[in-house]
């Protein structure tokens, strides 16, 4: 081997050794920067089977949910739980009485915004014998409203209304269908 190549290899090895040995210790500031960079990009995941979830507000159970599987994904900017079904939900009033039942094939709960989204074969039934069916439904927990831009069918003891686009309360007593079709009785 030529002397200049040997000398070059020696200095390269020495430089690599010095670089590797200096990487062993991070300053406190560098360690904080590394932790911040990692936390920005990390997602933690929690999985559960045979899921039961309760939402309690002001010492009252507001909702009880069951599902076959759930995975919660938590990042710096979001906290979402994806639930596989069948998903069954019971909503309660402040006296502890069930007011509404809902079911779907799957659901997503966004904990930061307190919003449930139900997907696939969504059915809602109330104690006043009102029924709603759709393929998608969004429940805003803060104001107890449900919405969907999709096709819906609502059946009450006196009406059967279908249409596209829905906004209403979870008890289905007050609602608007944006593009209604069907038969209904007006009192």
TrEMBL record:
Signal peptide (residue range): 1-27
Pfam families: LptC (PF06835)
The keyword Electron transport belongs to this UniProt entry's keyword annotation: no
Keyword Phosphoprotein carried by entry: no
Keywords: Signal
PROSITE patterns, per database record: PROKAR_LIPOPROTEIN (PS51257)
Coiled coil: none
NCBIfam families, per database record: LptC_YrbK
Protein name: LPS export ABC transporter periplasmic protein LptC
Organism name: Fodinibius salsisoli
């Amino acid at each position: 081997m030529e002397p200049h190549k040997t000398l070059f290899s020696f200095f390269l090895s020495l430089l690599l050794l010095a670089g590797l040995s200096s990487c062993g210790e991070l300053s406190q500031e560098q360690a904080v920067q590394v932790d911040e960079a990692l936390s920005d990009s990390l997602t933690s995941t929690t999985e559960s089977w045979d899921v039961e979830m309760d939402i309690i507000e002001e010492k009252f159970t507001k909702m009880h949910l069951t599902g076959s599987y759930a995975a919660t994904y938590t990042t710096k900017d979001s906290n979402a739980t994806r639930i596989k079904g069948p998903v069954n939900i019971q909503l309660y009033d402040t006296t502890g009485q069930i007011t509404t039942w809902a079911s779907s094939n799957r659901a997503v709960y966004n904990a930061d915004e307190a919003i449930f989204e139900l997907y696939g074969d969504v059915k809602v039934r109330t104690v006043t014998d009102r029924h709603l069916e759709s393929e998608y439904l969004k429940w805003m927990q803060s104001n107890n409203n449900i919405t969907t831009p999709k096709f819906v069918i609502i059946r009450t003891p006196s009406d059967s209304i279908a249409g596209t686009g829905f906004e209403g309360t979870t008890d289905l007593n007050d609602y608007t269908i944006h593009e209604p079709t069907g038969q209904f009785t007006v009192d």
